[in-house]
Amino acid sequence: MWTSLGSGVVLAAATVLAVPLLSANVFDSGNTELAADVRTPEFELPPLIIEELPSEEPEEELVEEEEEEEEKKEEERRPADPPAAPPPAAPPVVVEEEKQADPPAEKEEKKNDPPAEPKNEDPPAPYITRGNVQIKGLDGKCLDVANSRTDNGTPATLFDCNGSNAQKWNFWSDGTLRAMGNCLSLVGAKTSDGTLLHMWDCTGNATQRWAVSPNNDIVNISADKCLDVPWADSSSGIQLQIAICSGNPAQKWTISG
């Protein structure tokens, strides 16, 4: 505090102390007149200059400035932050190509394709390919159903031609040879040489299928043997058989009607 009062206070104090000393010197020398005439001068004290103490705020501001400078220096010393990673690239946009229509040439080819075969359809029903025919064999006699019977097992014979229904035969699309509502069949469905023939219900069995050869043979397809007159005996009523095709007159037949 005293230091801050400054030089003005020191000067004022020195002046006050000097006045009594001067007076004392005058009186001690015996010069009373001079002493009498000497009047204590009136001194005007210089104005007391009191310097205001600096407030604490500048010091605080200095401290703050120093702190800010230190912070700036620390920031300068710090390594620079790595650059921020770039944002992930957006997935590529896939543009689907429009399907082009088939060229007209291909469409025309498809139109020309054969129609698909029907699936799981029942085969067509058999039908007569040649009907009400007379079949003549050895000595001009006819293939006959014995006694015009219609029951299963009736023998198939060679008999005089008489134009009866027992001698009217029908060839069917399924390969059967029919008369009196039944099919010409092999006894026991055997295919061996010499197997006799009879009439039986049409069952679709392979042994009931027949074919006419260009040489006028009537061939059983399953047995691959020919319709035959046993021992070439042309007696009326003789039961017919199948035998190995040999080309003899007992295996030749003429179909008419």
UniProtKB/TrEMBL annotation:
Keyword Hydrolase: yes
Biased composition (Pro residues): 81-91
Gene3D superfamilies (UniProt xref): 2.80.10.50
Molecular function terms, GO-annotated: hydrolase activity
Keyword Ribonucleoprotein: no
Acidic residues composition-biased segments: 53-73
Skewed-composition ranges (Basic and acidic residues): 96-122
Domain of life, source organism: Bacteria
Protein name from the UniProt record: Secreted hydrolase
Source species: Streptomyces xiamenensis
